[in-house]
Amino acid sequence: MEQKLFQAAKALMVRRYPTGWGGVAALVTESGKILTSVAPETQNDALALCMEVGACLEAYKINEKVTHSLCICRESENANILILTPCGICQERLSYWGGDVQVAVSTLDNRLLFKQLRELMPYHWSIVNGISL
């Protein structure tokens, strides 16, 4: 599933950003659907959204649990594709579906590696409510 997710994200990157910078997110839902999204360009950085937001909203709309998340970017069409760990805000967004969501993480050798979300957030604030990821 991880390779399939990466290939879907890469295919959207090539289509949406044939030249220059590109960034794409891809999520998998419990039924195996792959949902992809990009970050909208804005004139005001305060309005910026992460690449994952569109796919997260789509998963929520169709009422399916997210099982995997991947975010990639590149500086130009000739640059290496980099795997990005979800930012803290996106980790919170993904926590809606629980700590077992598999998220791609950045590594020094840029290999495709997934970890459970709870591994990224071992001291998540929800523990004070008797809930843990």
Kindly describe this structure.
- With 133 residues, the chain is of the alpha+beta class.
- It has a single domain (1-129), classed as Cytidine Deaminase, domain 2.
- The chain has helices at 2-16, 53-61, 88-95, 117-120, and strands at residues 22-29, 34-37, 66-74, 82-83, 102-104, 114-116.
- Strands 1, 2, 3, 4, 5 and 6 form a 6-stranded mixed β-sheet that branches.
- A hairpin with a 7-residue loop joins strand 3 (66-74) and strand 4 (82-83).
- It is globular.
- This is Cytidine deaminase.
- It comes from Acinetobacter venetianus (strain ATCC 31012 / DSM 23050 / BCRC 14357 / CCUG 45561 / CIP 110063 / KCTC 2702 / LMG 19082 / RAG-1).
- GO terms for molecular function: catalytic activity.
Radius of gyration: 15 Å
**Number of E-type strands:** 6
What is the chain-wise order of helices and strands? HEEHEEHEEH
**Which term fits the overall shape?**
globular
GO molecular function, one term: catalytic activity
Protein name: Cytidine deaminase
InterPro entries: Cytidine_deaminase-like (IPR016193)
Question: What is this structure, in a nutshell?
Answer:
The protein has 133 residues and is an alpha+beta fold. It contains four helices and six strands, in the order H-E-E-H-E-E-H-E-E-H. 27% of the residues lie in helices and 22% in strands.
